[in-house]
Structure formats: structure tokens, C-alpha cells
Amino acid sequence: MDMEQAIEEFIQYLTVEIGLAESTAKGYRGDLRNLLVFLEQKEIPQWSMVDLPLLTGYFHQLRSKGISPATLSRKLAAIRSFLRYLKKEKWIDADPGIFLDNPRKDIVLPKALSNEEIEVILNTLNPPKDLAAIRDLAVLELLYASGLRISELVNLQLKDIDLDLGYLRCLGKGNKERVVPVGEKAILAVRNYLAAARPQLVSRPSERTLFLNRRGKGLSRQWFWSMIKERARQAGIEKSVSPHTFRHSFATSLLIGGADLRSVQELLGHADVSTTQVYTHLSDQRLKEAYKKSHPRA
Questions:
Q1: Chain segment 167-225, per-residue pLDDT in tens
Q2: Which of 58, 85, 193, 279 is catalytic?
Q3: Is 63 annotated as catalytic?
Q4: Active-site residue 173, yes or no?
């Protein structure tokens, strides 16, 4: 089988049969095509000829280019998954990926805004002065209240949020559904948006996407990035702010407030608690502060 065709069949398997998110599958395709370029330079015509020395040489080349451990880990995951698939389909006799060592991954602590900085951004929009401000306030309040990924928020439908019960449903990575509670301030902002802004933005009665742009269509990821950066700039926040900053701030606020790591994992939609453990330093900090305040010999 053609090497490029094998990659495309693998990507189709991931998206159709496994239900992997399109963005993740796209990343896998890019990583595998990069490997394919390396193999073509080595004049390797088929996947069955790929062995451990070749793969080790490929990762050595990546390290020499200064590729970060996090990126190396992602590429390794894509290649391992692909080779397992080829072995399962009996297109290769042996899987050399099982012998590859994991690159050491440096822990990068998430950047988060303080509660005060979040309040400053939201207060610049409250009370909102126009349709855009009504919508943007609802977006940011909901983002901070729920910790949603940007892809999850742009895909929210009207049916996904229950303002009376105070929760929303969203589809996360791998099309896994989760339920997230929504706080009172976010509920109020979304109610105001639905009553005062969305009816004037919507262009088709059949449109069910929750948040709309001026043309009555769903918002794009690019719009989210630019809107949040602009609203932060207007509030005088000098830090680099993105939708993911709000997600990190959500998790940080919960942990500093006393939430346990497992609950935060479920709210963020992390499949593995190890992903959430990047926030462990916040839990440790809270415990130390509690110890100092409570222990007579502290």
C-alpha cells in the first residue's frame, strides 16, 4: 500500500470509527507526513521497512532542531498510534514504536488571570453599551464560569444550556459529553443576551447556535481570540490573554477555592487526571497556607 494512502486510511479510522476530534486527527496527519518526508529522504519505500534505528534517528533529528519535549511527546503519540494500527491491520509484521522512549516533558505551569483581573475585564462590559458588548459579556462570563475549551463554546447550541437548572452540556474531545454547572452571573449575562441581543443578530429562524456574529452565523475561533485580546486591552490588562487563559483561570479559581483535583478534572473534561496534575502546585499552595493558619507550631 502507498505510504501516503496508509496515513489517510489511518486518519479516516480515527475520525470515523474512533470518533477522534478533527483538530487532533489533523495534528496526527501533519506529524505523520513529517515522518514520511524523513523516510523519503532515507529512501524508505514502505512502512514495513521502518525499524527502531530509523525512528530513533528521526527523533534525534527533531531534538537537534530544538523541538520542545511537549511537541516531541505529541509526535511520538501519533507515530505509536499509527504503527499500532498498521500492525493491527497486518500491514507490518512488527511494531517498532513500542521500544521508543518517552521524551522528558518539562512541566509548564498554566498562565492564569487573578480574580481581580477577571473582574476588571468583565466590569468594562458591565453594563453593556451595545449588542456586541451584551454578547461579549455573556461569552466571557460563560467561559469563566464553565472552563470550556474554545471549540466547545463555539459549538454550543440553544438546547445545550439550561438556565433554569443552571447547567450546560458540551461535547469535548473524542465527542465525549459532559455536564458543567453554570454560576448565577453567567446565567444572568446569557439571559440578557438571549433577550436583548440574539433576536437582533439571528438571520434565520432555524439557526440554533447559541452565540452569533453580526451576520447571524456562529462565531469562529479566530473571532474569539481577537475579541478576548481586545477586551483585555480595553481593560488595561498587559498580560497575554486568550480563551485558554480563561480556562486556566477557571481551574485556578476552583483549586484555590478548595475544589479537589478530581472534580476539576471532570469539569475540564480531561480524560486522564495526569493532565490536570499540572495544577497540583495550586493545591499544594492552598494546603501550606491552611497548615500555617491552623497548626500551633507552624
A1: 999 988 777 889 999 999 999 999 999 999 999 999 999 999 999 999 999 999 999 99
A2: 279
A3: no
A4: yes
Pick the catalytic residue: 74, 173, 286, 297?
A: 173
Task: Return d(Cα 260, Cα 264) in angstroms, integer.
Answer: 7
Catalytic entry in 80, 221, 229, 244: 244
The CATH class that applies to domain 115-291 reads: mainly alpha
CATH of the structural domain 3-99, one choice from 1.25.40.10, 1.20.1600.10, 1.10.150.130, 2.60.120.400 = 1.10.150.130
Question: Can 295 be counted among the known catalytic residues?
Answer: no
Our answer to whether residue 244 is catalytic in this structure is yes
Report the share of the chain in percent with pLDDT over 90.
58
The reported pTM is: 0.62
Q: Decide if 248 contacts 112 (C-beta within 8 A).
A: yes
Given the residues 75, 198, 231, 270, select the one marked as catalytic.
270
Per domain, the residue ranges of the chain are 3-99, 115-291
- What DSSP string describes 152-208? HHHT-BGGGEETTTTEEEEE-GGG-EEEEE--HHHHHHHHHIIIIIHHHH---TT--
Is 281 marked active-site? no
Instruction: Retrieve residue 101's grid coordinates.
Output: 522512549
Which residue out of 149, 198, 231, 248 is catalytically annotated?
Answer: 149
Catalytic site includes residue 248: no
